[in-house]
């Protein structure tokens, strides 16, 4: 059975020992319950209604080209029939979080590990661990795009190396602020012609009902131009909305990023400051200076 109590942990977080060294398992699609398919339907319908106005063109195109529907949690085999011929990627099932080296090895070989479980219906907007909705709905549409496909593979290779030399914290910030929480500038039609807008491509945002709106429309967070070294010095929130989103001028920037020799940057990162998530620097290219209202509201609520 795939039904899990609300507080259940999965994969590595549950102290699980893998049967296979790469941690893959069968998706076990036939074991999903009607409740679990219904949870997928709720999540799917909410996001597909929102994202055409908020996500970048490439995300929406990927989402529409894949065999995803509200009816049921998708079968990975069916997704792979479309995804693999397009960019060489495939989705493989894992029981939850996996060790870093296993994760990077999958990415380096164009396999995206997806949790096979789905969150419980009473925790639609609170996600402790990436589930099948986050991993498939959030990530796979962008894996249909050749630039993101190359970027994530190269990130996997860089991750294996960063782990060996003790630079994973710094490299992980690149993944966080791009693949998970990235925004990109996009030309959109407006009353006065064409204008620049900020759009979502990060899976952590695209799979979140509340943060997808917050990231693009809230006056609270900073939105600043992506700068690699700045990003690698910046901590992030794992427990709440981001205080800062980094914006690419174009998805094509990811390719240049993936080809960068990180070694001189790692060297520079051995000295100099680290930044808090809400910091704004005089050197930042600011798209929007956030008013921090959301963060202050949270602090008041807690205090
Ligand atoms: Fe993710």
Explain what this protein looks like in three dimensions:
By secondary structure, the chain is α/β, with parallel strands linked by helices. The chain is 46% helix and 13% strand. A five-stranded mixed sheet has the order 4-3-6-5-7. It has a two-stranded parallel sheet with strand order 1-2. Strand 1, helix 4 and strand 2 form a beta-alpha-beta unit. The relative contact order is 0.12. The structure holds fe (ii) ion.
Uncertain regions spanning at least 5 consecutive residues: 1-6
Q: What's the total helix number?
A: 13
Strand order of the largest sheet: 4-3-6-5-7
Distinct small molecules bound, one entry per kind: fe (ii) ion
Mean pLDDT: 93
Radius of gyration: 19 Å
SSE sequence, one letter per element? HHHEHEHHHEEHHEHEHHEH
Biggest pleated sheet: 5 strands, mixed
Structural class: alpha/beta
> How many E-type strands?
7
Task: Work out the helicity level.
Answer: 40-55%
